[in-house]
Amino acid sequence: MFSKILVAVGGAEDATETVPVVTGLAKAFDSKVLVVHMRERVVTAANFLIDSESRLKGAFADMGKPAASGMNTAPNKPPAPAQNLSIEILEPKAAKTGSNPVRVMVRDNAGKPVTGAEVQISLFMPQMGSMPPMTARAALKDAGNGIYIGQIDIPMAWTWQTTITVSRAGATLGATQTTITAR
Description:
By secondary structure, the protein is mainly beta. The chain is 9% helix and 47% strand.
């Protein structure tokens, strides 16, 4: 049984191109088997290909849609309240797969620490091909002076869409979106 796959081969000046290759057992008289030439470099580490493909798919999916204002994109929802907080990720600066310590600083508009709040961090990776979307969440604990700490498990190396939400008594005080890259 034969199957077709695409192989990325190195071209001039590290440019790559994908070429179709037939895999499987070939009979000696089969003349339609594509051979990768000895001087061509086959790409074997291709995280960048997956990352680029998923980013392109996301960009194409959003083409032609009206731009979202703020973080509230659901129809018939009131606009998000004005951001009255400064939310800064202090840690991790360089994340890894597995368990990572998280440290976040939350301050109000006057620069004063916000204490006694509920802080949630959420990581999101969109669907890629047949792999379903992935999420990771953690509740952070108030360590005092506007610092919130906790642990989050990052399942794989990726640049994760990150949302930090700060609330008190069920009311959202503010939120921010950024990215965390795990290697």
